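I am still learning, so would you mind making up any protein sequence you like and the tokens describing how it folds?
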Amino acid sequence: MPKQFLKLVGERTMLQATADRFEGLCPREDLMVVTGGEHRQTVLDQLPWLREENLLLEPMGRNTAPCIAWAAAVLHSRGRGDSLMVVVPSDHVVDSPQGFRQTIRNAAFPAEAGHLVTIGVLPEGPSTAYGYLQKGESLSGGGNRVSSFREKPDHATAIRFLEEGDYLWNAGMFVWRVDRILQEIRLLLPDLYDRLDTLSREVEPSSEDYLSLPSISIDNGIMERSEDVAMVPAGFGWNDIGDWPSARKCGIGSDRVLPLDSDDYTVWNPGRLTVLLGVSGVSIVQTDAVTLVMDDRYSQKLREIVARLEEEEPDLV
């Protein structure tokens, strides 16, 4: 089950908590969800008020640029070209809904002026799990220009970014006018733009139509290449729960753990007692079919193991 549909933090699923954060920013009927076609009923069960015409169903994943472009094209076709569009993942933890709403309001000023606005998170440490934004000159309407995007760095580079003080984590949250992002897509991703007219009239395109779209992220395709990108700092704590060590920071784990001379660990072993003796910096995850014991320094390599399992043990994935 994708993590956005789980109650990992609190009594609401991550999707529901994401939708809740928009209360006071826009009416419910303006919220739009883009997801895989196989998740249609799950989304409607968790957000029963969602208008079905605002549920866009991908027949397969093609990265973030196509799905964001598709949503923008649908909004434009409905006469919302001059409206602001806020793009957020539904599987991130935000610790302050009020801070989130104020951050979006702050981002609205440079977005209304025509900038493509991204939200930067103040680093909590020299993480190698996130991309970084380098803060440039201040803008008169608020925020700063982004002088550069940096890919996930090695540890030494991440330390240098923190020491220099003008780098923030790239949270993958964006605010822009619908017509502005479509202008940039037309300029920088013309092959994608040329297919949007057909997509703008569909909420569930055919596999053939969607497969023809270029598979590229919004960061690689637009944000890193555009000359008009701005940023505002996040007024909230943030965690993308991208690995088990980051899940630990959100308090995710089993309650039944008996540690001795052990610290800095994550255990997910529902219904069973786990005993830890003399270990630190580890994640132990038990499912019905698989047991994971991981040194947290290898957390970013877990996807390599998942890829091997998909090839060698597909019934376990």
User: Anything to note?
Assistant: Residues 3-239 form a domain with the Spore Coat Polysaccharide Biosynthesis Protein SpsA; Chain A fold (CATH 3.90.550.10).
